[in-house]
Write a structure and sequence with these properties.
Chain A contains 25 helices and 8 strands. Chain A is an alpha/beta fold. Classes of the chains: A alpha/beta, B alpha+beta.
Chain lengths: 527, 551
Amino acid sequence: MTLHKQIFAVVLLALFLRVLNFSFPAFTGEEASIAFRGHTLSMGVDELGRSFPYLFNSQYDYRLPLTSYVSALGAIFFGKSELAARIPFIIIGLVLVLLTYKVSTQLSAKKSFHIFSTFIVATSPVLIFASKVPNESIIATTLLLLLFYLLNKDRLNLVLIFLTIIFLISTSKFAWFILAPFVIYTVFIYRNTLNLRDKLKLSLISLTFAILAFAFFLQIPQGTRSLSENNLSLFSDITITNGINRIRGQGRESGWPPILGKMLVNKSHFFAAGSLHWLSNMQPAVFFSQFDENANLSFAGMGAFPKITIIPAIIGILFLIRIKSSKFLLYPFLIALPSALVYPQFSPEIVILTLPFVAYIIAFGFLRINRIFRGLILTLMMLELFINFLFLFPQVKLTNDFRPEWIKPIVREAFNLSDTAQVFISDDITWDITSFIEWYTPFNPEDAFLDIPYPYKFRQTNLGKIKLVGASDSFRSCGLGENSKFFSSKRDLDRAKDLNSIQATSTYLNSRKEVAVYFIEKGVCIN
Amino acid sequence: MYKLKNSKLLIFIIILLIGIFFRLWKLPEYPVHLSHDEVSQAYDAISIAQTGHDIYGNFLPTIFPSVNDFKSPFYTYTTSLVYFLIGNHEWMIRVVGVFFGIGIIPAVFWFTLKLTKRINIALFASLFTAISPSEIFFSRKSFENGAGIFFLLVSLSCLLTYLEKQKKQRWLYSAVFLSAFGMYTYFSHAVIIPLMLATFILIFRKSFTQGFKKCFPPFLLWIVLIIPLIIIIMTNPGSRYRSQTVFITQDTALERQLNCAESENSLLFQFLNFKTIGDFSFNRYLGQFDPAYLFGNGLDLTNQGFLNMGPLLLFQLPLLLIAAFYLIRRVNFANPGKLLVFLIVIGALPSGLTFEPHSPHRMIIVFTLLNIVSGIGAFSLWQKIKNLKTVHRIPLVFVPVALLTLNIAYFLHIYFVNYPYEKSQYIHYPFKQVAEFVWSEYDNFEQIIFDPLFGESAPVIGTAAHYYLAYYGEYLPAKFQREYRIGEKEREVIFDKFSIRKVDWKTDQDLRNALIIASPWSLPADVDGKNKVLKKFYYYDGKLAFYAISL
């Protein structure tokens, strides 16, 4: 088989893995909101009625525009459907696989290396997951790899580099932190064959765009807060400051001289905490055994790559050190550097960006293994992947809270009932239920339009005749003529039971076959 | 045979003295309180020395039931020897641990010298062993694992010496005895020491120039020596119970995942069960190499996140990276490098297969080996620095030395100052004060009830309450063995006039001529105002732990 046929086969495999069990995984609230936003953007406005905005809302942060507009492309062709929501990201995932092949030709002349690296990226469970749902990570990963490719080409195409940088900084705020160090490291240290003028030009472009992005973002309302809470939480984390004060205070109580306490326990611990946190994000377990704690971005018990690939990964690292090509080894750590600043949360969305580079390291390891063991490793890789794909129900149950497949019949029933009644839904049934209502029902977007120019962590609670009920809302018995239906959580059922003769007429189960929602057909209204 | 130059010998002695100082300085006072493990081993040791039975009446047990954690016997029996020598002192329980903790320093030196054939590497390795937080912490903690590590390192050194001069069989037999003995010191050593020996033989198989036939008699001897251990492990129900209670399947996070894998198809369920446990175990194992754990907070000496201490100094992190490059690029270090790596991989197995996310006490061998690797890194760095001009060399030496000094000073601050404040509850503080008070009031009451439910932020049941009472009352073990019985009330054990049980204030408040020791978790909020409180007991940080109430 020629190389091109082999690559084609790998791409076909990648496609197969990304369309297999097409509706898996179910969307998170964030992903559903991107999908719905894509649908509304295909009609010219976002979910809040703003015309082609450049900044979007989410539960946790502002969202940069590119991901949502990519989602809109799918909606333009396929309308409001699962296919429309997933297909753009599947295509980007396949582009990533092809790009991996192109970059592999820059890293090594060996055809087997090209095949292995492409195969590893094609079969990475995390990259498969990221290719199947609307998210910015797969776009940022592809763009970053594209940038690497363009920077290492014999002839630099400044226009393409320029465009890639623009798209990258329009995708993820983390890219603003990575961009300049990435470009500078590539042109000055890794590649180091360009003339000084080109090196400075590229470095300046990347630095300028990163600075402009920061400067522009800081002018936006809540921009500083957004950066502080989501990208620089290390510095706003109160636990380190409290810890320093507490440790010092105990020293003073014990008679240690205050000056010694200050020398030993001081703000340098922010640096230590950030550094260790950064390395912790890059620990072996993340890549080979459990990518993220909640199993949201990979199978439970699976890392970014199948377990057996730890062997070629170690061999690849040894190989690169021995042949003194260890500069490449620094790329994953460099790209993951912003995770140092996002303390104490782990940042799988940053680690995803490093995966193609780690795949190359694994591929280098494969080159050093004899055929028999290679075949065995590849077999075990595919076996682990297919077993996980074959038996999805444990994964579905495990991600019951974050990827609530079970929410669909509930929101659809709620929407149907809203034709003839006021419908109340507890807001703690699941994370971000608004997005599920908007996405899984024929919801009229105009019912949720609001005049908010810069919505930061905005929660929409009024969706036409559907209202979300929060912990601060109080209940009363409905009056004559008030027709209400209540989809209640356990929290609100306990509160609503105080009202006279309130009974749940039916229940809805979640993926674990536990009662998640109680349906109260009448009698409960909100003050 | 290496003859140490006087200068190198002097450096080694200084290193050893530094290690001795860190391990012995204020040993009776720090840790500030005997933990439940220490007091139970101490009292069992006295019981063995005086009666030949443990406190439950078991004659020379091969496993000590203790506080239902079935301890391995080595530490208790060696402590009873110490008791014979010096009598009962509170610090007697720490003697064995600190003895082997100090012994590990020359053991590391010898092992590293034999492995790398470089005295300077051995010196650096022993330096890091002398100042390593994990070595110091566990040496002072009366922990039996250190003895096993000592025997393992010495036996591997004997094996390496045998490979140098294969006519001298005594080195081979010494390795056999020491490695077998090491397996008796701690449960996990019974598994990892054979694996480590097998790894050694595999890696250095070509160095056995005399052939393996000559090794057969020593191998047989080794088998004979470990047969009793195998019998103990296989037949003692305590051993099986302990293995079951600490195995990874006890982890609640795993239980949650297994619940998700339940299926009506029993074959599928078994398969998914097996797969889930395997995945979880692998993840648990790899998690032992989390840099945040190793260099940040693995020893868990405080509750302040990264304002804490790892088993290794943060200073050692770059040295480990330098060592990795050094070992990988040098062909003549291939076998030593492989041995160190595989010993580390095997050494992490016990911690990787237990129910706790991290069990540093099960992984001490790994920290010791990483100290050796740090020594290699320091040596590599020194090789580069020493060839520089003086004007460049001085700052390049001064800065790392200053940073290392600060790092050590930080560890000492955390250990001696903050650890008592933050974690006194975890070493059962103030059970000693309670015991001493209770004995001072012994004659004034007909019954003394102690509820060991306590805790600063959440209630936990303290174990070994009966040990604390017996030990600090110098209660004769022979009498304790007769008196001890399980009571009828909830979690009640009784000896003499002591009843250690759950306090039910609704009924217990009506008792007469009784002394009740209980925490605020067991008592009503207004107990202080309405009853005669004889004394209050506090945690090390001053928070209220127990009331002593006279009825």
